[in-house]
Amino acid sequence: MSKQSTPPVEIRSERPADVGAIAAVTGAAFAGAEHSAPPVRPGGPPGEVDLIGWLRADEGWIPELSLVAVLEDEVVGHVVCSRGLVDDAPALGLGPVSVRPDLQGRGIGDALIREVLARATEDGETLVALVGEPAYYRRFGFATAAELGVEAPDPAYGDYFQALALGTEPHPQGRFRYAAPFDRF
Q1: Which of 9, 99, 111, 179 has its CA 20 to 30 A from that of 70?
Q2: Smallest Cα–Cα separation from 52: which of 156, 179, 175, 176?
Q3: Strands 89-99 and 127-131: what pairing?
Q4: Against a cut of 0.85, is the pTM above it?
Q5: Residue 90's domain spans which residues?
Q6: What does pLDDT average to over the chain?
Q7: Are the C-beta atoms of 76 and 69 separated by less than 8 Å?
């Protein structure tokens, strides 16, 4: 299937007025996803929606690394990096990443990820980790975290736990921990 063209999207920092739209996009993007976190509220949206809300209230929240994709004045995608740790050294956890289902496969997720990585590098971050499909994230430079000396918080993640060294400074090595809200699943 070839990518359909999409008008240019604006990538910008999340604003308070975007919270509801981000929840809607995230809920739609993860609805029925095989790997999706189960609803925290019975009958509610996928767990990723609650996770983003919990992250906003957590000390690991980094507002400048919560970005939205806007198309024709509508939020159509979202990405967030939150504070993680490798042993006691700061690192980033990337995700969730979501794009409105009817616009998936058109480069919006790619643009969001590239921008959040560029901003993280500019901010002096040295490592970002995530759980995701290796074939997809390889295009951004991610590798199996173990190749970078980073141990997954859960060994069951296997090769799906990936990391990317940012900037020119040495990156931390050791066991990775996501921001506390990830432990609620």
Answers
A1: 179
A2: 179
A3: parallel
A4: yes
A5: 10-184
A6: 92
A7: yes
